[in-house]
Amino acid sequence: MKQDGGYGSRSSFLINGSTGKQVKFFIDGLPQDNLGETQGLNILPIEQTERIEVYKGILPVDLGADALGAAINIVTRKEKQNYLDVSYAISSFNTHRVNFLAKKYFSKSFYTNVQASLNYATNNYTVTAEVPNQFGNPEVNEVKRFHDVYKNYNLKAEAGFTGTKWADQLSLTFTYAGLYDQLQNNLVMTQPYGMASYKEQLFSSILKYQKNNLLKDLNLTAFVSYNKIKGLFTDTSKNIYNWNGAVVGRKFSGGEITSSANELNIYTDVINAKIITTYRINDDYKIIFSNTLQHYHRKGKDTVAQKFYGGIDYFGTPSSLLKNIAGIGIEGLLLKKKLRFTSSIKHLHAQIKGYQIDWTTIFASKQNVNDVTYNAALAFKLTKQLLLKASYEHAARLPDAEEAFGDLMLIKPNPKLQPEKSENINLNLLYNAGKIDAELTGFYRKVSNVIYLRPTQFTSTYQNLLRANVAGVEAAVRYYPFSSITLNGNITYQDMRNQSVIDNSGLNSDRYKNARIPNTPYFFMNGGIMFSKNELINEHSNFQAWYNASYTHEYFLYWEVDGARELKNRIPTQFLHYAGITYSLSKKGVAFTFEVNNITNQKTFDNFKVQLPGRAFSFKVRLYQFKNLLNQ
Amino acid sequence: MKKRNLNLLLVAFSSITLFSCKKDKEPENLNKANYALTVTGGVYPSQTTYLFSTNLFPTDTTVGLTNAAELASSGQMYKYGANVYISTFGAPATLRKYEFDVTGKPKQIGSFSVLGLKTFGAVDFISETEAYAASNGFAGIPKLVKFNPTTMQITGTIDLSSLQKPGATEVYYLGLVHRDDYLFMGVNYQDATFSNLADSVFVAVINKSKGTVSKLIADGRSSEMWVGGSESSFDAKALIKDVSNDIFVMGFANNGKPSGVLKIKNGTTDFDPAYFFNLNTATGKPCLGLYYFGPGQVFTMRYTDAVAYPFDTDANYDPYAAAEYYKIDLTAKTSLGNIAPTLPKVFGVSTFMTKWDNEKIYFSAPAATSNSIYSYLISNGIVKKEFDISAGVCNGFTKLN
To answer: A interface mutation test: which of B40, B70, B119 has the most A CBs within 10 A?
Structure first.
């Protein structure tokens, strides 16, 4: 997982050679595409999470996703008991996190559930930056980030029935969430900003129905959700800041980031509907059908920019995306249940209605995109301890709203985008022998039509251009030498090579063919040890101490084949250490956690060499009570 | 006799010393930088500029980037004295000064930045201690930076606020040339619809001594100022100064007006109403920029297909190379034709021409399927391919020593 700044900043994942939007993100099986910035793995309190499912290679058909080879599904807590769980954490850089969870069963089947969180961080960590002196000569200084406040709130209320004759679960959830994010710098951290900000609010409602054996051997799960998102991008200051936070000049016109200045309101409506049915043919076979529908509609309004552009409203034209993914799959057991196979086929459809601006003319654009993806996977139990898995997938990913319609700010629309495609082959060997769990994975992907953000001198546009081959190996092991100690480690090497031959200027050049894709880590590993001891000092207590380390080998910001190696821009090797302790008293329902991240205070960077926080301390206290308290 | 012998001895010693010097002379450094080049290239995720040197003139070989310094984003090279300077795109606008070490690798020896600004439109060197960098106006900072190229320190700024016009949402400062106590700077005004605010070629006349804008002159015989450049840059220029100290200004074809050349006569600060060289008429197609290397050695980029003019793209905005090198006569106001009709059509905006002796003019030919540097023999106009570029667009090539 990579973040592009401090607390609350965007995070991205690198899984089996897939990254960015190629990795789909779900909460309880519901796609989070196009739902804005308020719901994310980077800010979701861990106390609200039961587990995180990471899918590599072939995705289950019931996920209903158009991912290219990986997905993450966060499964939230669903204990069938009453509970109250409150925590507060204070961390370096004025970071405060409050979390509140409560669930109450009013009868055997009717419950309500409230989840709330409040997060705040000034992110005023120290970075190394160039500050021009009185002669304009850049001087390297250690400065504190001065305009990077992040606030986020999230209130979720749920009411529902479980375990009734007519529903295993029927629930209605309302969410009200928001964020305020100060924008500190440009993509590569060379230009600081002191006033620009982004605000967002999300109103969401989700209706979920689930029933196993609705008809004989037929299970059904259905969701429908309506989401309203309101964003506000403000860039109206003419101030020019240096990295010391001082105003060193005023622009004649425009804002800090854009030439027009902006007070851009963005109104988005998203409807998601999903249905999953499973039919059990017999004990060894079942058929799964899923359909995921999303309708996205966005419109903007910016009176400041409209005034600048002489009354022309570049943001008022609506954009819409209708996306449907229908899939059917089969799962079965063969050879005395030693061989498990799955296979599925999916139809992907998108209707993209948007517009492109050619200087001053707005051209409406409408296109229908269709694709069919298919896959097959085998899992063979070689021995009691050894499982061999192999899979092939022809995968595709439809353009998402940001890619097709831009962000109305710095990314221009391109509604004519085509789906990304990939041929994936995965091979896994899993070993489980009591004290050891181990996994060895090999993967190969041939990706075409890669959708990437092509920066230009003024704005950026997503385009289909690149073709790439990705081959990699990954090994992971978990070892339990004693009941109180767990050791774990994983290592990944992935070789991502470009296959395109046309460069940005239109020159036909095969110079970059087979060159390593820049700006992406290719060798990294993680390792850790955890010590856990019950009844230490006190009865009903649990003590945990852990140490983790992560290593990312250096990689180049731009094409490896160009330039002298010692004169190239690079993300240096990063070797980071983390440690923490938790002491909990389960009877009293209290836990204390103390953590240190980046213990050695090493300089860390995101993929664009934006500096990330140094050493950070965090202390959390958590109070929790289960059904006993609430039943009293 | 004794004295004579001593003198002979001294002569002999000197000879031995000289001989010894010759014999013990340091071996020639085969890595010494004699030529410098910049190349902007790359595909995903963005463009980068590479500055590198060669010891020998790179003949009949493919020039690579193995000893190049990497600069993020596209960049423009300037040559002044023994140094090269590079301005890259991306805030803050930064001008970097380079020399080359004994291994031939570039070494940055100075730089200055202007916060809030994305790039410098043109850099004009007056002397070892005086130079000017025009801020590119779309960042909304109307000023001209005065700096000392030796120390690379900003020594002052000239306020350009008076050049603003009502209704101009974007103001671009394009191209610089100096004469007497004046700087002449091209100005382009765009309105809210990204159209020409007024179909005229604008040039700001700036008094260097006073550090103020003297006036803004305009001429409606061509449509607008477009390309930039200065005497120290390699790209096609908007303003050039000839041996008679006349300044010629290139106008861009748009809105029914032709591309053409205007003149500001020596000793004056206004357009010469009697002079206009209609390049559309003379060459039959719209033209872009001027390359000037002395009397009789003036060139422009002629676009064979107006669709590609001036962004080098076709109707679908895909790259489209349609330009060719044309020789023109500024005095006779005539076209002397394509200097190399067999050459592939090139991306006109990405071209350069340069000259460091009286024998040849070197120029680039970035085309869809080839990317090479050619020479033009001044004496007879013979064009010959010199070497290929292995990656990206070569936007500067100079002899250092």
So the answer is: B70
Mean pLDDT by 10 residues, chain B (401 residues): 38 36 62 91 67 86 77 89 90 93 93 89 94 76 93 95 88 93 95 85 97 97 92 95 97 95 97 98 97 97 95 84 97 97 94 95 92 95 92 89 79
pLDDT value of residue B20: 40
pLDDT at A539: 82
Instruction: Determine the pLDDT at residue B45.
Output: 44
- Distances in Å between the Cα of B245 and the Cα atoms of A232, A382, B265, B266, B392 are 55, 88, 7, 5, 36
Phi then psi for residue A452, to 5 deg, are -135, 155
Residue B147, min C-alpha distance to chain A (Å): 9
Which residue of A131, A558, A569 to mutate against B (max B Cβ within 10 Å)?
A: A558
pLDDT score for A15: 83
pLDDT score at B62 = 64
Tell me whether residues A309 and B192 touch, CB distance under 8 A. yes
Hey, are the CB atoms on A504 and B371 less than 8 Å from each other?
no
Q: Give this complex's ipTM.
A: 0.86
Cβ pair A259:B138 closer than 8 A = yes
pLDDT less than 70: residues of chain A? 358-361, 410, 454-459, 502-509, 628-632
Chain B CB contacts of A196 under 8 Å are: none
Q: Residue A455 has what pLDDT? A: 58
Q: Strand A70-76 relative to strand A23-27: parallel, antiparallel, unpaired?
A: parallel
Query: Does A132 contact B67 at a Cβ distance shorter than 8 Å?
Result: no
Residue of chain A whose alpha carbon sits nearest to that of B153: A135
B56 touches chain A (CB under 8 A): no
